[in-house]
Amino acid sequence: MDKNGEQLLAWQKMGVGFLEVGTVTPEAQAANPAPIIDRHLSELTLWNKMGFPNKGSKALFKKLENFQKAKQVPLFINIGKNRETPIEQSHDDYLYLIERLHPFADAFVVNISSPNTKNLRQIFSSQYLHDFLLPISNLCQKLKKPYLLKLSPDLNDKDFFHVIETSRKLSVAGWIMSNTTLHRPPQSHWPQEGGLSGLALQPLAENMLKKIVMHLGSEKSKYLIISTGGILTQDDFFKRLEMGADLVQAYAAFVFHGPQWAQQTCPSVP
Predict the structure, then answer these.
(1) Contacts 24+ apart (CB under 8 A), 258-264
(2) Is 114 an active-site residue?
(3) Mean pLDDT across the stretch 118-136?
(4) Cα dihedral sign, 134-140-141-145
(5) Annotated catalytic residue: which of 57, 90, 114, 137?
(6) Between 65 and 267, whose confidence is greater?
(7) Is the pLDDT of residue 270 over 80?
(8) Separation of alpha carbons 246 and 176, rounded Å
(9) Per-residue pLDDT at 185
(10) Spatial CB neighbours of 78, under 8 Å, sequence gap ≥ 6
(11) Which of 18, 157, 181, 268 has the smallest CB count inside 10 Å?
């Protein structure tokens, strides 16, 4: 949620075990037309259609350069394409970002799962995914930087397992599950466009985690599995670890429970 790396020192002091910055795109871009974000306190649900607003890779480079000496935890850099970049050329944006920002990254998060950039999720299809990931995989191996793939909770089972197996063949280090959802609960008051997170995302994120753990079986230990989506309480946090997640991420929890959420939820994790 810190798209421009402006509060990395503050996040680190909150007691988190790792940081993720972004999504960053090669060039600066504005948000989608307003409204772009809203919350519902009693539903504990967050809605957004931001669309990767950020100051671009040059501005982030300077922030990360300044942060490097103070860095105490692993840093993941979440990368995306500019909305004007054609889908067929989208891999070029990701390659540019990896090449430019790799000195600061412990891993890259390849974000093709946002519902708020037109046609972005098409990259998950068999038409695009292999050819998109191949040059990214080659560059990351050359630079000795792992990459993670951030998944959509709206993939059907066939597409989900296709994405997992295709990315495994292309040296993925793991997956983040999941991005926001276009699914709407019954009698929803939310707009049809934009993604939901928070409590509305919880069952979908838990189901994805369950599916991948069962699918990988004894191979699970070879990959990093990060679970996010609807993690709002201490019970939610430990449940995801018990279900097989290696790391747990929270976003909406900070919106609904404030900046001390991390320290209050897991003051000491064995």
Answers:
(1) 259/10, 259/14, 260/14, 262/14, 262/15, 262/16, 263/14, 263/15, 264/234
(2) yes
(3) 94
(4) negative
(5) 114
(6) 65
(7) no
(8) 10
(9) 87
(10) 20, 21, 22, 23, 24, 108, 109, 111, 150
(11) 268
Q: Is 19 helix (H, G, I), strand (E, B) or coil?
A: strand
Average pLDDT, rounded, for the chain? 94
174-177 and 195-198 beta bridge pairing: unpaired
Nearest Cα neighbor of 57 from 5, 109, 107 is: 5
pLDDT band per the 50, 70, 90 thresholds, residue 265: confident
The Cα 47–Cα 37 span in angstroms is 6
pLDDT tens by residue, 139-167: 999 999 999 999 999 999 999 999 999 99
Q: Characterize the bridge pairing of strands 195-198 and 45-48.
A: antiparallel
Q: What is the mean pLDDT of residues 36-62?
A: 95
8-265 folds as: TIM Barrel (3.20.20)
| Whole-number Å distance between alpha carbons of 51 and 33 | 9
Q: Name the pTM for this structure.
A: 0.95
Give every CB contact of residue 21 below 8 A, 6+ residues apart in sequence.
2, 3, 4, 5, 8, 60, 64, 75, 76, 77, 78
